[in-house]
Amino acid sequence: AAAASLSLSAALPGHLLRGLLPLLSVFRLERAEAAARRAGLSTQPIWRKLWDDVMKTRPPNAENVTCWRKKFLETFFSNVLHGVLDVSSDWRLNDRHFSPLLHSSPHVTQLTLCNMLQGAVELAAERNQKVLENLASSLRILKFQHLLSSDQSIRSTLVLLLHRLIHHGSVSQVSVYSWPVPDTVLLVLILSMSAGFWRSGNALTYHSGPCGLCREEEQPPPQEQPERGCCDEREWSDGENQKGSLSALEEADAEVNGQGADAGQNSVLSGLSCCPLEQQACEEASSKVSCDHSSSQGGSSPPCFSEQLSHRPALRKSRRRLKSAVGKKRRCLRRSRGLCADLDDLYDFVFTVAREDGSVSLDQNTVTEGENTDNRTSSSAGSPCCGHAGCKKRGGAAGIFPLKAAHRFRSVSTLELFSIPLTGDTCRTLSNLLSSWVSLENLVLSYNGLGANVFCILAGLRALSRHSDCCLRVLRVSDVFSHMPCMELVRCILSAAPRLHTLSVSFDLKNQLEGNGPVGNPSCSDAEIPESCLEQLEIRFPREPLHTALLLPVLKASKSLQQLSLDSAVLPSSQELGLLLQALKECNPNLKKLSFHDVNLADHQREVLLLLQDPVLQEITFSFCRLFESCTTEFLLEIINAVKRNSSLKSLRLPGNRLGNHRLVALADIFSEDSSSSLCQLDVSSNCIKPDGLLEFTKKLEGHIQQRGGRIPFTHLRLFQNWLDQDAETAQEALRRLKAVCSVVNDSWDSSQAFADYISVM
């Protein structure tokens, strides 16, 4: 009876409420949360037990979960949505007052949609309108994973969902994962709506009619008359209707627009094709590829697209093909009274135009190659961003949609594309979207097979950086093969986007053809790097030589650099590391964190000691650098003394350096009584440490603590992947005593199995 009455639970004494809470259903427990807080009771153990009983799995990073209530309800929502959890399986879920999706949706900040987008179909159903409203307020991260090709009805549903969650919602990050053969139409739909582009008005029709939020923001005119402008039904941004037309394209687009998701897709692609970026064969692996924007301050309108067609034989041919294709489509539409399934001809035309290597103006702020070069403008090097997350400024955008009727909605601030092959057509589309995506703060392109198409992406970023309200601060690019040397790409990126704060470039292999080096780009090699705002630079070389002379221009331009990470580089000579350290000292006085991973430092002991003595560095990482491979006792003592005398060093990471037991024990002297070290964190993962060595290290550390009156700065020790399973009892004693001194992070690693796996792949 008490469980059925929430007012009773609110009035119960604390000791009775404590006994009552575990007996409540999820619905009642959720509603009793406020009463429990007022009584000073935590419901976290109950939610954790619910997780164990219902989910029956151990969540990843369970030690980092701060709120088990949110964790449970968010995962519960996802499992119910995708049909992998039966609410009748547990009495605590089976409450007649409990609507699983409705009551758990306010707690969902991250959602993943998979496969055939069944979850999107469910959320867009009329019965779940309130659920969708809740998600529009709570959802921050929207992920797509393992998507398959979808039909027109599913795309139409996705349009409604994205419009509500992104354009009129709170989603700030869109991530797409693992799509080996992407559906171009669906991918461009996701990208364009994430960028905030879509048609307003009756192109978006919900169960109750056109989008009410759109109607509130901007009332459409009573009747929309089809315009005979250059691009679709829209007018140029300077307000002048352009004469001349592509009537076949317009009429086909108009017929398609009434049919659902493909309507908006055609609108986007029409805009992309009518006003493409200036480019030269971006799809080819040519070193002189360029699809750059050029800005001017002139106010004249760009030439009409139909006029450009009349002067370009290739485009005239495309136009003739389009008219024929559109005629077929219209006949198909009349026959079926619906959308013709085959839209390939229209998309072929769109991408044919996008591939042309001529220069087509974007809007009144852009010029063709060779015109008004004196009036071109560029962003001030290193100028700070005036905007913030979700910047709403759109004025002066030199983007692909300069036409007023292509309404710009709210856009996301983070875009991540993982393991999705991007064709030349898709890269040009993305480049065009990027060129005016001023709210974008983080861009991650991982394993997309870009190749030479990376220059198209750079062209979009260059155009974007010219906007005064550009918010882009983080760019991460990684792939299997590098199309060009890493340092050249870094220079290209910084010259295109000097306001980046974080840049990460990572490649696994030099190139696809064995024996051939990466293709360089002369324009990148000679590119001037303006003074940048770069604070963090990460470069993973595909076993390339690290030449300080090539890195030097980047370091000189990055006066604000605070973090530098160099991975898998080859030092071509014994002097190279010394030259790098000298360059860092002269060019980057504010550098706080320096990391080397998989760089052979066995023969660079002098430079290692210089780094450990540096009075500015606060964090140093030597990861799998073979540091102690030929280490003498004298060198080990020099390392310990250097750290003891360095009061600025806070973190020292030494994973994978063949430390062993006796060297670990020696490192305890860093905290001896005569030490002035401020070292807080020590990472000795993957160093062949055994339980007896760890115990001896612990005893020695306890002795130093006692000598110093019980106080040392040491707070964190990382011990991943060491041989602690060889003597469980000794390891447990060592860990127990260590945890009384500092925070210890380790894992239950099976060293014997790991060794067997290593032998099996030799």
TrEMBL record:
Any transmembrane segments, and where? Answer: none
Name the segments for region: Disordered. 216-262, 292-320, 362-381
Instruction: Please provide the record's keywords in A-Z order.
Output: Leucine-rich repeat, Phosphoprotein, Repeat, Ubl conjugation pathway
Tell me a GO cellular component: cytoplasm
Biased region (Basic and acidic residues) positions are: 225-241
Which stretches does UniProt call biased (Low complexity)?
Answer: 292-306
Q: What Gene3D superfamilies does the record point to? A: Ribonuclease Inhibitor
- The name of this protein is Leucine-rich repeat-containing protein 41
Originating organism:
Alectura lathami
